[in-house]
Amino acid sequence: MARVTVEDCIDKVGNRFELVLLAGHRARQISQGAQITIPRDNDKNPVVALREIADETLSPDDLKEDLIHSLQKHVEVDEPEPEAPEAAVDATGVAAIEAEEAEENIAFDRMTEEDLLAGIEGLVAPEKSDDF
What we know:
single chain, 47% helix, elongated
């Protein structure tokens, strides 16, 4: 049984902390029933995971992507947005004209500066308390 050390794997994965994360993730995969890519040689799952990384039977980039995917709680899928249904237009173009008229009839409340100041003056200040 060959002993595997961090130094055997560090040239495959540049960061020791990332190596620990990847090996731990792979060890959990093995304990959940994933196929191993090297002979077990009576080694435990973390050692098998490190040996797989050292022997480059698994790509560290693939392990990293799989680890990130396993930690995500909400995965967004890029789906094309449905296009807005176009208004049915008859031969005379009546629907297009009605849509333009509806946009022109939008009204907003307008307030003058004097009305705004009068409204602000009428407000009552909140009572002070020790909580805030």
